[in-house]
Amino acid sequence: MRIIDLNETSRKNLLEELIKRSPGQYGEYALQVEAILKEVKEQGDEALLSYTERFDKVRLSKEDLLVTPEEIREAYNQVDPHLLEVMRKALHNIRSYHEKQRRFSWFDSQPNGTLLGQKITALQSVGVYVPGGKAVYPSSVLMNIVPAKVAGVEQILMVTPPGKDGKISPNTLVAASEAGADLIYKAGGAQAIGALAYGTETIPKVDKIVGPGNIYVALAKKAVYGFVSIDSIAGPSEILVLADETANPRFVAADLLSQAEHDEMASAILVTTSRDLALKVSQEADRFLQKLSRRDILEKSLENYGYILVADSMDAAIDAANAIASEHLEIVTRDPFQVMTKIRNAGAIFIGEYASEPLGDYFAGPNHVLPTNGTARFFSPLSVDDFIKKSSIVYYSREALKDVEEDIIHFARAEQLTAHANSIAVRFEGEENSQRRDQS
Questions:
Q1: How far is CA 183 from the centre of its chain?
Q2: Of 32, 164, 212, 316, whose CA is between 20 and 30 Å from 222?
Q3: 3-state SS assignment for residue 102
Q4: What angle do CA 262, 49, 123 make, to 5 degrees?
Q5: What torsion, rounded to 10 degrees, do the Cα atoms 52, 208, 361, 158 define?
Q6: Closest alpha carbon to 268 in 21, 9, 7, 8
Q7: Nearest-angstrom CA–CA distance, 348 and 25
Q8: 400-414 per-position pLDDT tens digit
């Protein structure tokens, strides 16, 4: 891995390089995605099936789109029993964590005749996109469905591309069943996003679409945003390890590679105050590369976006970590909890040498759907909050409104909105004359 001194120039250059990974930088695909979405919107299932045959190399009928109970039972017979056991343990942890995020409606009444509050309502329907093909990630199935289920979403639909045999990976189907998906469809790519956003004869329209995908899926989600809600525009995976001389170089190298193996655009960055650690981590990474199965992807990923930055101080290292705002941030320092208090921007923070990032990917409980491409500066991990909406509640008695009548009218007239003022005044019209008569 390349080793670079951390300074203003190297930090600026790195940030410019990392932003090139954003789906927003691939405008050449946008027109193709828009054409797919338009066709699905206008032609429904016909377009969906046509694109499935074109991109997934399998011919399906309308009747084949919806996964049947028989197919799910078959998947249970094919899945590794040990994997199912582990999946259920992970599901327990994920559900327990997200149940702590649940919100409830609240109301506050006052003696003056007012009642204010907030009504929490779960979304009615959500579509979960799950990648297929070479990528089979049952962990992502759990992470996307569980918070929606905990939030109380009425109907959870899942879409995922079929294989050339017209089937879905047993691991994916079992994960969806265990997590609580209501309907599962064999559809992928931008065309599946269009089906969820607009609805077809077979696939119902949803209120929100969540889940990761390739560049076509990311751009399709971006294009339909506003017509439906989405979670985020996910970019390639990334990890940043913040370490000092106390860190174990072998552990650090292993953790960097754990994200670099996702794809050639993944970024793996070490920011350290120790040049000796930097050299040892680079050496350990080279040794691991000799025996890991995805060596080609790892080498290209490290060549493209693998960096070791050597900082003059821990404060400078922390500033760089906050500027990069990584999806995953590991803190492996002498006092990691103290360092953690200074971190402002990170999707998920892993503290100490035994909180390895894959622990969060699979098992610990917090969601692994995280903001990427520096968006951790203003976005949060997927949570129960993503599957609810809030309505404000306002009640005023006649007496309570009367107390503030003149204030509201004055405010409305200041904005030259006389109809607003009239809406208040009309409720008390004639009252002044009546009061004068009573006083006389």
A1: 21
A2: 164
A3: coil
A4: 65
A5: -40
A6: 21
A7: 25
A8: 999 999 999 999 999
